[in-house]
């Protein structure tokens, strides 16, 4: 991930200001860091936190600072508003690439130095089938639909300019990671199959008519992974096949519906 403009981050120590600064948590939360960072960098940042490599952590003016112990001690600054804006003395940081040291300091700021939970550390790089049969309650279903709608907002139209391209790709990736997490927590049933089919159809509309630019294949790969999950659903619970009937005679942007339609087009086996 390209590091965003860091000109607003102070790079000088001001001890007198530190002593007067009232502690305020950052404007971002752990989910924003987790889903907005590539899984490999997030995993390395988690390791830095767990290994107690974040030292001399301080609240600065509109930022946080720390010494992160890596190959050598690195001075790190991270904005209080944007976890991906700041400065690090490491090679990546000096080349304006978001590094594990910055992400680790942002995580530390969010948690206030507290231990990470297992859920905090769990990384879902692609959607998975839980292989657990079950249905959501009405309240759970409503909440999941709202969470899906929220994640889909990261998958939006691109109108340029070209300098925003990398940030746009990051947004697409974040949306897919959020949707992958949601999918990977769902039980297997006709109910959740319908939910995922509807999600794919909404993505398809975005791709065909919503101005989404998937030149690097981020959305295509995600959709293919969801199709794989749905195929697993059908293996665990044959009633899930009913949801695929909605895809008959549909023409999606890259034919993702075909493997699912084939499942309902197979002739029944003789007893």
Explain what this protein looks like in three dimensions.
The protein is of the alpha+beta class and 271 residues long. The chain folds into 2 domains: 15-121, no CATH class; 138-265, no CATH class. 47% of the residues lie in helices and 9% in strands. It has 11 helices and 4 strands. The protein has helices at residues 15-20, 30-36, 39-50, 91-94, 100-111, 118-121, 138-152, 165-184, 190-209, 218-236, 258-265, and strands spanning 54-60, 63-69, 73-79, 86-88. It has a 4-stranded antiparallel beta sheet. A hairpin with a 2-residue loop joins strand 1 (54-60) and strand 2 (63-69). The longest helix has 20 residues, at 165-184. The radius of gyration is 22 Å and the shape is elongated.
Which keywords apply here?
single chain, 271 residues, alpha+beta, 2 domains, four-stranded antiparallel sheet, 4 strands
